[in-house]
Write a structure and sequence with these properties.
The protein has 500 residues and is of the alpha/beta class. It is built from 15 helices and 14 strands. The strands form three sheets. A six-stranded mixed β-sheet has the order 6-5-4-3-2-13.
Length: 500
């Protein structure tokens, strides 16, 4: 039976559906090595059309399972009927699947005439290329990048040097190395074993390497996780209640902590429109107790321009405006058409403006911090704009959109990667969980449960200095990838010229 049989198409779909299990919350990371190697085998030496189809089915399976929580946001909290929400989620997944289809097609084209073991490395490069493109095309969706599966493995030692894309590349090369001794009758060569074992050992030896050092005293932090229902966010009768809950939960914290933090959307009313008495009381309490209060709140003028922001109250107020907005959630392309399509696109405050790109970070309790709001921390190459000056990472998120799905766990995994890449400790405040204090190795020092009303307390240690990733970002990995792909492209062109 040849590889053109439709059973192999189903196999590609199933492989895609299994890959999300490699990520949080299940963390079965060996799947992120085994599954790509199986996909390489399915695609190798097949016609371009068949490779495209298999790649598409794989991508469809991956995202239909891995980001199925999009449906919850659109249906349960987006005022959209179940059929329309299902259709919109299906369209979203179908679009994302195209990246894997193109990756498979490019791999087949560039690997033409190569042995399977060599072709596997070509497929690995094409995978990385489209993973990177997916991270910026149409504002980007860098979710479920392979590198995130290695947070708790020895390979995490490479993250401060090469970032998450570097981990993806290493993972893919290990997958390709496994392919070098297929079919199974071949003997596992010492070279393959040496490469794979060597990568894990090297990564493990890099983990304790200190790229940064302590500076200043530990900062006492209290995170208020009110865990209020997302559906009350836009209810005019609930806005005051939500504000009062955060204020009441914070009352016993004043003066006992350097920072009190409320998450993104803690207040769902424009800061400028909030009652003056309420704002003055918070500011006065912050100054009197020498406590910095960080609040996630819309900021600006609803009739002209407004931002999703983190504001700091206290002796030195400051504000950060979110730079990287979420399409359709925070701004709506083709708004008139979209709003006719579904209620989700008619949500209040879905016309945010992005903040300036050259913001200098956020000063909190006397320290410069690298701020991000929700989805922004998925873009490591943007977060390092604030480093090495920033000594702590600080993120406010609203994961209430996604109920009790895997989304919050996946997002926490992403936040942990940012801490490892920058070797900075991180303050992460969310509406319904998972709030956390993360150390410079990406390990959770303290964390809340999902959908738990609680206060998380602890300390973070400011750190100074720069990891190689902070200095160079994704460029070393991208330069290597592009040079290798260009060499392969020149080879392919020469082969075609010779045949003609």
């Amino acid at each position: 039976m040849g590889k053109s049989h439709y059973g192999f198409d189903v196999f590609a779909l199933v492989l895609g559906m299994l890959l999300p299990l490699a990520f949080a919350p299940l963390n079965i990371y060996p799947l992120s090595i085994i599954i790509p190697s199986l996909l390489f085998w399915l695609i190798y030496d097949t016609p371009g059309k068949l490779a495209f189809r298999r790649g598409y089915l794989f991508g469809f399976g991956l995202f239909s399972v891995g980001v199925s929580w999009i449906y919850i946001a659109v249906s349960d909290f987006g005022f959209t009927s179940a059929p329309v929400a299902f259709l919109l989620t299906l369209i979203f997944v179908a679009i994302l699947a195209v990246f894997h289809a193109l990756q498979a097609l490019l791999g087949v084209v560039l690997a033409k005439g190569l042995s399977f073991s060599v072709a596997a490395f070509v497929f690995a490069l094409s995978w990385l290329l489209f993973e990177w493109i997916r991270g910026w095309f149409m504002t980007g969706f860098p979710w479920l990048n392979l590198g995130y599966a290695y947070i708790d493995t020895p390979l995490a030692g490479f993250a401060p040097m090469l970032g998450v894309y570097g981990l993806s590349l290493i993972s893919l090369f290990i997958s390709a190395s496994l392919c070098s001794f297929w079919p199974l009758k071949k003997t596992l060569t010492p070279l393959v074993v040496s490469v794979v074992v060597g990568l894990f050992v090297t990564g493990w030896s890099l983990i304790p390497l200190q790229w940064t050092e302590k500076t200043g005293e530990p900062i006492k932090v209290a995170i208020v996780q009110a865990s209020l229902s997302q559906i009350t966010k836009w209810d005019p009768d609930q806005i005051k209640h939500r504000m009062d809950v955060y204020a009441q939960m914070s009352e016993p914290l004043w003066g006992k902590h350097d920072i009190i933090m409320w998450p993104e959307n803690a207040m769902s009313i424009l800061w400028q429109d909030a009652p003056l008495l309420y704002k003055d009381k918070l500011q006065d309490r912050a100054v009197a107790t020498n406590t910095a209060l960080v609040i996630g709140v819309p900021y600006g003028d609803i009739d002209t321009q407004y931002h999703s922001s983190l504001i700091v109250l206290g002796t030195k107020p400051d504000v950060y405006h979110k730079r990287h907005l979420v399409p359709f959630g925070e701004f709506v392309p083709l708004p008139e058409f979209a709003k006719k399509l579904a209620g989700f696109f008619q949500l209040p405050m879905s016309g945010f403006s992005p903040g300036e790109q050259d913001q200098s970070g956020l000063e909190v309790a006397g320290y410069k911090m690298a701020p991000s709001i929700c989805y922004e921390d998925a873009f490591g190459e943007e977060l390092i704009d604030f480093l090495p000056e920033a000594v702590v990472l600080i993120n406010g998120s609203n994961n209430a959109w996604y109920g009790k799905s895997w989304a919050a766990h996946q997002h926490l995994q992403i936040a942990r990667m940012r801490a490892i890449e920058t070797q900075r400790q991180s303050i992460r405040s969310t509406t319904t969980g998972i709030s956390a204090l993360i150390d410079e190795y990406g390990q959770l020092m303290h964390a809340t449960n999902l959908h738990e009303q609680t206060i998380l307390t602890g300390t973070v240690q400011p750190r100074q200095g720069a990891t190689p990733y902070v200095r160079w970002g994704n460029w070393p990995v991208l330069i290597f990838m592009f040079i290798a792909l260009m060499v392969l492209l020149v080879r392919t062109i020469r082969l075609r010229v010779r045949r003609s």
